[in-house]
Design goal:
Oligomer: heterodimer
Radius of gyration of chain A: 15 Å
Number of domains of chain A: 1
Order of helices and strands of chain A: HEEEHHEEHEE
Helix content of chain B: 25-40%
CATH class of the largest domain in chain B: Alpha Beta
Number of helices of chain B: 10
Structural class of chain A: alpha+beta
Strand content of chain B: 25-35%
Number of strands of chain A: 7
Structural class of chain B: alpha/beta
Strand content of chain A: 25-35%
Low-confidence stretches of chain B: 141-147
Largest interface: A-B, 25 and 19 residues
Number of strands of chain B: 11
CATH architecture of chain A: 3-Layer(aba) Sandwich
Distance between the termini of chain B: 28 Å
Chain lengths: ~170, ~300
Amino acid sequence: MPDTDPSYDVAQVEMKLSRAWKFLSGEKRGFQYVGGAGGHWGFAEFSFLMPLDLAHGGRCGGVGVLIQHADAVRVATNMFGVARHDIQQADLGDACAEVCNVFSDCLAMHFSTGQEVKMGLPRWASPLEYESIAEYSVIRAIYQGCAGSVRLRVVLYDSLSSRLEVSP
Amino acid sequence: MKEKPISLSKPLKFLIVDDSRAIQAIIRRAILRCGYEPIEVKTALDGEQALDLVESFVPDLIITDWHMPKVSGLEMVQALRQMGHTSIRVGFVTTEKTPALLDQAISNGALFILHKPFNDDELAAAVVASVKDLAKQLEPVVVAQKADVEPVLEASLHKRLQATLGNIPFRLIAHDPMTTEKLTVNNLLGLYVGSGHKGVYAIGVMDSNAVCMVGGGASRKLPPEVRAAMESGQPDETMLVKANEFMRSVAQCMSETADPAPVAVSLAKASVVKNTFGKLSEVLAQTGHRSDFRFSIPGYGEGRMAFFVMAA
């Protein structure tokens, strides 16, 4: 059982992520907090990053969303309302960017207490970029939702390596 | 939403502005669910594209995202107004929740601000509420047939809310029927009596979000206080008192629609009940003689309320 982050309501974030996933994929899935600082992360085929900035300057962080192929297909078929075989590769990326957008909103308010947080635009991160993020950035929380062996991870970064910060 | 298509003499025109084609698809489906025929739907990937498109395609309603590359949704709406397009209606579908920014959208004439995640019915209801007067004008044959008596008319309830909330901006739209699943844990239940009627004449239900927003707005509480009460599902005493007063004032709306008139309706009792309260699910299952609404205040959130006239 991982330690829970005491500075905000973890159960509320879990509930928001589940609700968001139902909207995006049409599927009911529970999300759990699985770790805080120093926790593990894993690169996935569709790995997206949403930059978070404090409105009046200061630290920059972000939300990483790591989506495996099966979930990317699930979310794209639901959002585009088409059959699996009609989905193009670009559709998968488009749908996953929106997953990153909506999931980031579930976590953004917990990036800072009392200060306004500005969300940027989601962007796809290459395996190399994610490797650097893991090496140089500070993880605050990881949430995970599983369906069988398919694993979807949402990572809140308290600070990002300055090389990787993305202007909103 | 609409089961039968609503035929129009000329197309209703919609412009969807979102950098996600996936969200564009969801919005397009919600528009189709409204049942208007014919319609024209065009899309743009950002505010800049939308502004270019409006030169040749003037939509009746723009449904736009907020955060987009190049020109944001708010910047696009501001530019539209400056260009003289004051009659184009606009609604936002967004994750943006900053109260000051939402106020700017409202002051630029945004008719609705729907936060993601939403469900298709909510968006379709918002679209219908935004264009129903235009659609009415475009209906070739007016079929004035009222299948059911609505105990509380939207316009009438709107006035009551305005009287309660003063200058606080809010949105009220007729909505899909309230169900037990959509209720909050605590809810305000009002029992109304009517002159010449034995027993309960009507019942009103406000979920705790609606109670906090109406009660908190009426008592001029600060947004953080109201949002905290909504999150906990526990309106304070002042909010409850003000929500009770509002519920009392709704009796007048019911008197206006009583059929056969006249019936003087008044609130006999209001109390907080849990969503598990047995009688509540019976009431919510009623299929006719009911009015259901979604109510929102930008920056606070949204809640639901419904009113039921009991069968004789």
